[in-house]
Sequence to fold (121 residues):
Amino acid sequence: MDKILLNNMCFYGYHGVLPEETKLGQKFFIDMEIFLDLEAAGRTDDIAKSISYAEVFEIVKEVTQGEPYQLIEALAHGIAKRVLSTYNSIDSVLVRVKKPEAPVPGSYDYFGVEIVRRQNG
Fold:
């Protein structure tokens, strides 16, 4: 299966369980792997046979900067659901949400989740 990659997209959002997270907000980094058949796009050089990663970027931006979620699991699910419902040609998506400014004392790069969702599943 072929895939389109969107890595390290950065958006500011207000997701979290603690009140200061929903009030002050923080950066979230999103990675996506979009699994679909790209043979026709490669053969014909026709964007209509693929999907626009610019449009996917805008969807991820809208979801991440939109209605706040308490859990990054729910944010990842919301992103996956919206992308899958927009493009019927996608077989599945992997969404990784990284939260580098989580309110946890200590030294770390980020906390995160990674989910896989399938079309019609």
